[in-house]
C-alpha cells in the first residue's frame, strides 16, 4: 500500500537574509555620517568667525617704499620781529592817539600818560639844583674873599717883619757900640721872631683853608652833578610818558583805554615788523626730545613748497604741547598774513626703505600688535600678529608679520570683538 504524503507550502518557515539591501543602506549612511563628524572634529576650522560686510570696512595694501621720518604740525604765521611796548613809568592814560591795527612810523605818538608824583619829583629836583648852584657860587665867592683877606694879612706881616728886621739890624750894631741898651735890643729881637712865627702860622692856616675849600667845592660839584644826572633821567622818564613807536610797522595790539591806570613795566601792546615772517608751531609733547634748532621743515603755500629751519624751541609744555619757531631759508612767500595757520612738515630723521602699512583706526584697538589680513581669495580675513616700528602721518613702519602685497583691514576693529576670522 502506498502512502502519499502531501506537504502544505503555507506552513513552511522562510528564513530572512541578514545583509538586506535596506540594512546595508542604513549602515553605509551611518558610517558616512560618522566619517563626516570625525573629519569635522579633526580637520575643520574651529576659530571664532564673524560675518562682516566688506563694503563697510577699509582694506589697505602693504607696500614697500621710502619711509620719511616726519610729523605734520599746524603753525601760525607771525612777524619775524615783534616789539613789545612796555610802560617805563606808571600813570593813567590821558590820551590815546592810535588804535590796534594801525600802521605806524618810528617816533609816532601812541599813548600819553600823566603822573603827578613824577612831575612833583622833577620840580623838587630842579629846585634842589638851583639851590646847589647858588650854594656852590656863594662858597666860591666866600673862599675868594677869604683868600684875599689872608693875602692881605701876609702882606701886613711882611711889612711888619721888614720894619722889625731893619730895627733889629740897626740896634744890633748900636748895642755893640753900647749906644742902645741890651734890654731894648732883646725886646726888638723877640718882636721880630714873633712876627716871623705868626707869619708861618698864617701861611699854614691859609694852606688848610685852601685844602678845605677845594674839598668843599668838590663835594658840592659832585652833589650837583649827581642831582643833574637824576634830573636828566627824570626828564627822560617824563618824556617816556608819551609812548612812541620805536620802529615802523603795524600796531597789532594796544590793550589800554583812556583813564586806565598803568604800572611801571606793564605791557601796553606790541608792534609787528612787517619786513619778514616766521612760523610758530604747536607740537605734541611726545616729540619734545626730538625737536631742536637746525631741523628742516617744509611749508606749502599757493602751490609752492618752501624750505624752513627750526630756529628756536620753547621747552615749556602747556596742555600737552610745546612750541617751536621756524624761519624761511630762502625768500618769504608773498601773500602770507599774520595769524594765518598752515600745516608744516617737520623732518625728524633720515628717510629709509621699509615695508609700509597705512595708518588707520585699527591701531587704537590692537596697539599695533595684530591685524586682520585677507586670504588670497579675498573671502576671509585672519588675525595675524605683527610688529610695528616708527610712524609718520601716513604710514607705520612694519618690522615683522607683513610683506608687500598683503591686504590688511586698517579701519576700526571695535565692532569685531575678539574674533579670529572675519568672513565676507
From TrEMBL:
Keywords: Coiled coil, Membrane, Transmembrane, Transmembrane helix. The keyword Coiled coil applies. It holds the Pfam family BSH_RND. One of its GO terms (cellular component) is cell envelope. Belongs to the membrane fusion protein (MFP) (TC 8.A.1) family. It is found in: Cell envelope. It comes from Chitinophaga dinghuensis. Residues 354-412 form the Multidrug resistance protein MdtA-like C-terminal permuted SH3 domain. Residues 91-269 form the Multidrug resistance protein MdtA-like barrel-sandwich hybrid domain. PANTHER family: BLL5650 PROTEIN (PTHR32347:SF23), EFFLUX SYSTEM COMPONENT YKNX-RELATED (PTHR32347). SUPFAM superfamilies: HlyD-like secretion proteins. One of its GO terms (molecular function) is transmembrane transporter activity. This is HlyD family secretion protein. The chain crosses the membrane at residues 24-44. Residues 210-244 form a coiled coil.
Amino acid at each position: 500500500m502506498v502512502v502519499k504524503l502531501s506537504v502544505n507550502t503555507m506552513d513552511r518557515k522562510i528564513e530572512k537574509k541578514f545583509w538586506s539591501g535596506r540594512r546595508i543602506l542604513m549602515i553605509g549612511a551611518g558610517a558616512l555620517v560618522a566619517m563626516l563628524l570625525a573629519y569635522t572634529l579633526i580637520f575643520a576650522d574651529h576659530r571664532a568667525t564673524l560675518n562682516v560686510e566688506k563694503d563697510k570696512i577699509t582694506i589697505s595694501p602693504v607696500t614697500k617704499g621710502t619711509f620719511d621720518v616726519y610729523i605734520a604740525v599746524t603753525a601760525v604765521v607771525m612777524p619775524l620781529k615783534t616789539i613789545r611796548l612796555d610802560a617805563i613809568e606808571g600813570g593813567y592814560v590821558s590820551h590815546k592817539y592810535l588804535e590796534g591795527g594801525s600802521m605806524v612810523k618810528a617816533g609816532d605818538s601812541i599813548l600819553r600818560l600823566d603822573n603827578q608824583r613824577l612831575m612833583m619829583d622833577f620840580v623838587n629836583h630842579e629846585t634842589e639844583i638851583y639851590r646847589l648852584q647858588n650854594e656852590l657860587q656863594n662858597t666860591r665867592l666866600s673862599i675868594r674873599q677869604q683868600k684875599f683877606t689872608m693875602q692881605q694879612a701876609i702882606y701886613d706881616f711882611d711889612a711888619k717883619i721888614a720894619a722889625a728886621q731893619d730895627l733889629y739890624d740897626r740896634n744890633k750894631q748900636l748895642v755893640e757900640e753900647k749906644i742902645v741898651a741890651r734890654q731894648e735890643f732883646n725886646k726888638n729881637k723877640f718882636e721880630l721872631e714873633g712876627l716871623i712865627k705868626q707869619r708861618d702860622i698864617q701861611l699854614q692856616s691859609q694852606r688848610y683853608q685852601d685844602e678845605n675849600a677845594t674839598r668843599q667845592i668838590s663835594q658840592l660839584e659832585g652833589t650837583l652833578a649827581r642831582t643833574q644826572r637824576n634830573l636828566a633821567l627824570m626828564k627822560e622818564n617824563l618824556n617816556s610818558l608819551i609812548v612812541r613807536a620805536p620802529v615802523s610797522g603795524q600796531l597789532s595790539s594796544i590793550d589800554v583805554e583812556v583813564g586806565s591806570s598803568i604800572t611801571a613795566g606793564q605791557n601796553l601792546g606790541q608792534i609787528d615788523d612787517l619786513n619778514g615772517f616766521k612760523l610758530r608751531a604747536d607740537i605734541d609733547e611726545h616729540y619734545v626730545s626730538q625737536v631742536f634748532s637746525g631741523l628742516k621743515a617744509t611749508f606749502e603755500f599757493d602751490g609752492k613748497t618752501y624750505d624752513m629751519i627750526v630756529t628756536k624751541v620753547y621747552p615749556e609744555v602747556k596742555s600737552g604741547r610745546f612750541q617751536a619757531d621756524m624761519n624761511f631759508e630762502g625768500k618769504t612767500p608773498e601773500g602770507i598774513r599774520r595769524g594765518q595757520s598752515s600745516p608744516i612738515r617737520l623732518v625728524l630723521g633720515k628717510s629709509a626703505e621699509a615695508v609700509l602699512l597705512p595708518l588707520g583706526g585699527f591701531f587704537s584697538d590692537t596697539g599695533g600688535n595684530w591685524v586682520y589680513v585677507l586670504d588670497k581669495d579675498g573671502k576671509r580675513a585672519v588675525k595675524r600678529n605683527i610688529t610695528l616700528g616708527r610712524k609718520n602721518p601716513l604710514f607705520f613702519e612694519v618690522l615683522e608679520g607683513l610683506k608687500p602685497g598683503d591686504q590688511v583691514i586698517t579701519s576700526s576693529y571695535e565692532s569685531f570683538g575678539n574674533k579670529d576670522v572675519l568672513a565676507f
